[in-house]
Amino acid sequence: MSRIFFYPDNTRYVLFTDQALRHMYDHAQRRMWQTEAGGEIFSSDPDSNGMVISTATGPNPSDYRRRCAWNPDIQASDLNRQIEFTHNRHVVGLWHTHPECSPSPSGRDQKTTWEYLDSFQGDRSRYLMVIVGNHGRPPSIAVWTASYRPRREWTQLIEVSVSEAGRVSWR
Which DSSP state fits 51? Predict the structure, then answer.
């Protein structure tokens, strides 16, 4: 089932398709021996106020993975982005797992998100960080965005059930 996350002011939202969610859920760290996993998320319309995340890639076999660490293989990630771009899908963020019930970003997670956004050199106004926790069915998930509108902001998005989303007051 899809999941939808709104900006606190209800002016924008991010909807995750079943396909993208299943891919990320498959890597939730449910056991003590499981290592962090991650990759990138893609949307056909990266500037939309209603962004739809249709695809998630990763992890790649050559990623660096530990219980509390994940670093992507840059060459494999570049190849994934090229393939997705041929299908009109643009990278809009990173996803990874955390071995915790209520996932929250580390300082390193925030720094990495800003580095990715900065690498677009102004071609993107925001970049998402999605963290999949290890509790619940489906697993807990939390979404943040780094953005430059109107100034540099780090914002946690708020999940709303898909059935309630139609009743959200748009501004």
Answer: E
